[in-house]
Amino acid sequence: MAFREKGSAIIIKTPEQIEGIRRSAQLAASALKEVAPYVKAGVTTEFLNNICRDFIKDHGAVAATVGYNGYKHETCISLNDVICHGIPGKYTLRDGDILNIDVTTILNGYYGDTSTMFTVGEITEHAQKLINATRECLRIGIAQCRPGNRVGNIGYEINKYATSLGYSVVYEFCGHGVGIRFHEEPEVSHVADKDTGPVMQAGMIFTIEPMINAGKARAKVDKRDGWTARTIDGKLSAQFEHTILVTPTRPDVLSDISNEYPKP
């Protein structure tokens, strides 16, 4: 979940905490895998939320978003021009839609956070290129996660790549430390100056969740619900998110259940 919330010092996780966070992150990813077959034309976003809700409950966890600052749902579902924090409801999916589903679980007191993009029917080439670029932005950001590197280089490299393709990177929402609490330090901006921010250390866990827009980078939050953040120009937005552990060697993507990223 992309949210700015200042906290205390960065928490270096213990081996026990790491394994608890890993299990929660994998459960969140499994909820996304569970809902995938239901993402099709004619289905409401509320129905998709309820699939995730039941899966999370059946596996002995709760959704971190329920009750968070008054939020009432187990997922955020962000469609087309919605950047993040889209509220599930009566909207019925139709061919050509693209959507992000974002899940954060609390399992045995530990938080795991992940999101991914889905497509409905045949989408435009323009939309597919945006999704592909956003996935690559996440990969580029993850590659920066190593001890001694600075957190700002994650956003620096993401922004450099995205803008080279003519896209913009949302700077009003960010990734964040996670695991013991929903939102911890450090704040992980996806637009940053080179060699800025805290120095990464083994044992740090945070999300990287780039939000890439086809048009302008700015967001506008719906005044009626106080959550839904849309692009200011109505153009498409896409987002992918993983929970990352910094290790002495390569990054450990805790929410990767598809073996997309090599393990350390």
Kindly describe this structure.
The chain has 264 residues and is α+β, with helices and mostly antiparallel strands. It has one domain (15-253): Creatinase/methionine aminopeptidase superfamily (Creatine Amidinohydrolase), CATH 3.90.230.10. Helices cover 25% and strands 23% of the residues. It has helices at residues 15-35, 45-58, 125-143, 152-164; strands at residues 62-63, 76-79, 82-84, 98-107, 110-119, 168-169, 175-177, 184-188, 205-208, 211-213, 219-221, 229-231, 237-239, 242-245, 252-253. Strands 1, 2, 4 and 5 form a four-stranded antiparallel β-sheet that branches. It has a three-stranded antiparallel β-sheet with strand order 3-12-11, with no helix packed on it. A three-stranded antiparallel β-sheet has the order 6-10-13, covered by helices on one side. Strand 11 and strand 12 form a beta hairpin. Helix 1 (15-35) crosses helix 2 (45-58) and helix 3 packs antiparallel against helix 4. The chain is globular. It starts with 14 loop residues before the first helix and ends in an 11-residue tail after the last strand. The mean pLDDT is 96.
